[in-house]
Amino acid sequence: MKTETPVEKLRRMHLLTIMTALFVVGLGAYTRLEHAGLGCPDWPKCYHNWFVHPQIATPALSINDTFKAWLEMIHRYAAGLLCIGILLLNIYRKNKDNTLILRFIALCTILQAAFGMWTVTWRLHPLAVMPHLIGGMTITALLTLDYRNQYASKRPILTTPTTITTCLRALMVVLWLQIILGGWTSANYAALVCPDFPTCQGKWGAPLHYFIQGFTAPFGFRTYEGGVLSGNGRIAIHIAHRFGAFICTVIMSWLITQVYQWRHQLTQQFIRKTQLLTVLFIVQIALGILNVVWTLPISTALLHNLVALGLLLQVIVLLTQKSQLSKVNHSHTPHFTRHVPTIN
Length: 344
Prior knowledge:
Layout: H1 6-33, H2 63-92, H3 100-121, H4 126-151, H5 162-187, H6 208-214, H7 231-261, H8 268-293, H9 298-323
């Protein structure tokens, strides 16, 4: 049996860490959707215990409360495993010249743990919940970026037009902004404020003061579970999230057009990855609409979170693949070179 080299072992560890991060993000979203964010009223223990028992509270926890407490604790245990994986990657990375991203990931992990604590101690304040939701995706994205930089193939392939790179970078920016808007929507319980689609309560927009209310952090409440913003503020948040989806659609359409225009100059691998990105994007839009029409069932809401992360990771894959190509500027109009055989 072939023995794994240290590099292969580290690569496998890196993949396992990414898988763990994906699991933690999904479990965190599920915990949020089950309204189990305060399933444990203290941190890092749960009812002053490391394990949840129905007898530890007075009065004893109900079956539903016990489920929420266990869900929250399992999420914390999984996050602990992720921290261990990131720590091991930082320790065993032999190439010390390529540890900057890993060091930054470690810093993000510390901040993520802090926001996890504040989510509980601040009683689900949106300024704790939203960064905590975004933090998990950030860590997963950075782990994927570092993996691609370390282990993706560096063999020379055909050049790619700079217009496609511009599309991907623009898509990356708007996806991040859209994910942040989605986190703010979730943190303020604004997903169900618009029961219709494509309008919101029969209207296409909202006045400016709605947006001021929606994007001003609330303070002074005993708990923020269920949301404390006015209905008008939540309408503005929801409309902003829909508008973000429209901007993403415009840029995604631009990318598809550019890839089609340059299809003869791109590798089949690049085209297939773009096709996968397109499928994920269509699924994400459909899930967003179904969340409204079906009044936010847990299954579609959970998939909406995970597909958003999948879109982000796929854009990173395409951008890092582009970074391995030789940097050649192209005009916006594709050109093709006729190859003339040489005579030996």
